[in-house]
Amino acid sequence: MNRIVTMVLKNFWIVPGAWIKLCRYARHPEKYSEEEMYRHIQYILKRAVRSGNIDLKITGTENIPEEGGFMLYANHQGMFDVLAVAASCDIPLGAVLKKELYNIPFLHQVAICTKSFAMDREDVRQSLTVIQNVIREVKARRNYLIFPEGTRSKTGNQMGEFHSGSFRCATKSKCPIVPVALVDSFRVLDQKGSKPVSVQIHYLTPICYEEYKDLNTTELAALVKERIAQAIEANT
């Protein structure tokens, strides 16, 4: 059975109310606190994880800064990635999503509530605008998740190229960077079936601005990718 169908069927008695509440938040996000909306999203995601036969193994949450204004950079394996991070990171954050995901029901409402941004990879000007918006928000003490590969890997736990442009969000806002290593996340929604699956999420040691300020974005991208690669290798 499809894993999403399994999640819905096992939560059929709470789905209507949770969906209506999420839509209400998305219609008028200005009326609610970021924390209230984020907690509701986490409530939905954590129920989906349990009912979807997903075992989330999370390490390094102590590496997530307690104060706002940081960036998470993660490898990208599949559609479950952003949901896995949101379910496991208790500090409210938004994300940079490709435009195709932004328009999917549920993800669309979540994106609005978390002030996430949709990026059109074919439109350079629009992509630069998204980066500028993220820089502005991070300077205002909000937090964002970016997948610097730009698209999900087709080779499981092997990463693709990290695009250096996405690291301008960090260098321009001078914020801490938390590398995030995802292991086996592609097995959740990018493979058929609903058999039990284990997914690892490793929040690695933050890289503060003082540590990377003398690096250009290409060098910074290589540094973050190397740390994530080391964590994946150590846990596969």
Instruction: Determine the CATH superfamily.
Output: Glycerol-3-phosphate (1)-acyltransferase
At the third CATH level, what is the topology name?
Answer: Glycerol-3-phosphate (1)-acyltransferase
Give the SSE string. HHHEEHEHHEHEHEHEHH
Physical arrangement of strands within the biggest beta sheet: 1-7-6-2-5-3-4
Summarize model confidence as the mean pLDDT.
93
| Main sheet record | 7 strands, mixed
Number of strands: 7
Number of helices: 11
Strand portion? 5-15%
Report the CATH C-level class.
Answer: Alpha Beta
**Reported CATH architecture:** 3-Layer(aba) Sandwich
Extract low-pLDDT stretches.
none
Distance between the first and last residues' Cα = 27 Å
Helix content: 40-55%
> What's the overall geometry?
globular
The class by helix and strand makeup works out as alpha/beta
Rg (CA only) = 17 Å
Can you tag this structure with a few keywords?
globular; 236 residues; alpha/beta; single chain; 7 strands; Glycerol-3-phosphate (1)-acyltransferase; seven-stranded mixed sheet
Topology:
Blueprint lengths: L2 H8 L4 H13 L6 H18 L2 E6 L11 E4 L6 H8 L5 E5 H4 L4 H7 L3 E3 L4 H16 L4 E3 L21 H6 L3 E7 L2 H4 L7 E7 L5 H4 L4 H18 L2
Parallel strand pairs: 1-7, 2-5, 2-6, 3-4, 3-5
Antiparallel strand pairs: 6-7
Can you put this structure into words, describing what you see?
This protein is of the alpha/beta class and 236 residues long. It has one domain (3-234): Glycerol-3-phosphate (1)-acyltransferase. It contains eleven helices and seven strands. It has a seven-stranded mixed sheet with strand order 1-7-6-2-5-3-4, with helices on both faces. The chain is globular and about 55 Å long.
